[in-house]
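Entry type: protein chain
Record version: 2
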Amino acid sequence: MPIDKNVKYRKSNRSKPLILVTNDDGVNYYGIKALAKSLKKIADILIVAPAVEQSAMSHALTLYRPLRCDKIAKNTYVVDGTPTDCINLAVHVILKGHRPDMIFSGINKGPNLGDDVHYSGTVSAAVEGGILGIPSVAISLGSAVLNSHKLKKSRFNLAARFAVKVAREVLKKGLPKGVILNVNVPSSEKIKGYKYTILGKKNYSDITSENKDPRGRKFYWIHGEESGYDDIEGSDCNAIGAGHISITPIRVDPTAHHFLNNLKRWRI
């Protein structure tokens, strides 16, 4: 996995490492505040987050309009763009090309399990960090099937405390190039521990609904209701469903290496 050569190692006289914190729920959401507060125990924190919720924006970059980036508090910036925009502006503009020691994205309201990772702005911010060669982690809170609006602040605080443990290990041991971690914390009151997992398969029903506006024209709403998950041994869905925290390593490089030799035998 090539590293962006324009991104340099951070040069400073800080006694602590620097962790860049972002999310997809917006700079004012409680999850990112809880995460930053806990991580301050072990690192200096730079928050660069979207102005408004950017859930399901995946890896979108804003290319066809200018972006605003404003400082709203000490070491806190708000961007009127996507989580991926936030990472790029943080590294290339705010930090002037000097990379942070780590990126932590979250804490997301609701889980990011299985196929969710392809749509999640939270996970994509961490993926962007992986592309830049920066050790990166995404963390989310919620059960495999959950109304995320019912999450309690105490559960975010618990997830934030676990994030500190993960951050310590990542800062100490690093991550392989092109690998990020996707962490999901159950919203249940009793957590049994943590498991290292593979991506599972969540199921959704009623993906789209059709309606009509006051003029009688049809419009469509994409939403999807969580309806369970496949029983896959060792998956993140199974771990969360059983009351464990899941930690899933995700490769930034999506190449299907196992199929490449078979593909070479094709005659097109």
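Comment: Residues 1-5 have pLDDT under 50 and may be disordered.
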